[in-house]
Amino acid sequence: MSAPRPAQDGSAAQPSLSVGEASAPPVVIAIDPSRRTNADLMVACRDLGYIGGGRTLDPTHGLGTFWRGWSPDGLVRTDIDPTKSPSASRGVDFRYMPWAPIFSAVVFDPPYKLNGTERPGADDRYGVNAPARWQDRMALILAGVRECARVVAPGGHLLVKCQDQVVSGSVVWQTDEVTRAAEGSGLSKVDRLEFLSYRPQPDGRRQVHARRNHSTLLVFRKP
Ligand SMILES: C[S@@+](CC[C@H](N)C(=O)[O-])C[C@H]1O[C@@H](n2cnc3c(N)ncnc32)[C@H](O)[C@@H]1O
């Protein structure tokens, strides 16, 4: 940085930036209330170097909301729903993907809501509108984690959106289950960013555990 310039009014000198001098990059915080969208999360992960250094895969593309702030060059966008799968017109099941380990980043946002409490509109969008046992939903997610881990290139990152949540009166520690599946596939956890939600507790529900008002983005690295 260039030397402080004396202020004209005699007050303390202010540091100034010369032409071409970069300002300090923003500090990325694990639990940041100013992060309002998943797209903000992706920008944070770009700034941390987890996405953007090579090929990136989004195998649960949906409406593509993760990429509304920034998207990496050559992003591969697939989904099991062909109408949401711009890079593969017949759709791709995240449990059986056609690629070798070529991606430097895989961003996996599975249908992670486990309980059957209806959220009209959102359930359809997130692919959890069909009735299913929560154990089967969890098995689907973990199969996806293992397959996503497989297609990550050595030195690359796997990012998984998930949430510890109350199901039938008990907490299901989904972040632990996802971590075990990723570690079982040979990856190591390197980061954890929280995403705050402001949805209120449903009316008339007896509360037996702290309400989980955040979802989590886990970041793993393949050696
Ligand atoms: C939580 S949503 C993802 C939302 C997305 N990130 C967005 O910005 O809209 C989960 C997505 O997974 C897709 N999906 C569900 N089962 C799948 C499977 N077996 N293979 C691939 N995609 C699947 C759903 O169609 C849905 O779009």
Task: Describe the protein.
The chain is built from four helices and eight strands, in the order αβββααβββαββ. It has 223 residues and is an alpha/beta fold. Helix 3 packs parallel to helix 4. The longest helix is centred in the middle third of the chain and has 18 residues, at 134-151. It starts with 37 loop residues before the first helix and ends with a strand.
Strand content: 15-25%
> What is the mean predicted local confidence, pLDDT?
87
Indicate the structural class: alpha/beta
Per CATH, what is the topology?
A: Rossmann fold
CATH homologous superfamily caption = Vaccinia Virus protein VP39
Q: What is the CA-based Rg, rounded?
A: 21 Å
State the separation between the terminal residues, measured CA to CA. Answer: 37 Å
Q: Helicity, in percent?
A: 10-25%
Tally of extended strands?
8
Bound molecules: S-adenosylmethionine
Return residue spans where pLDDT drops below 50 for at least 5 consecutive residues. Answer: 1-15
Number of helices: 4
Largest sheet: 6 strands, mixed
CATH class: Alpha Beta
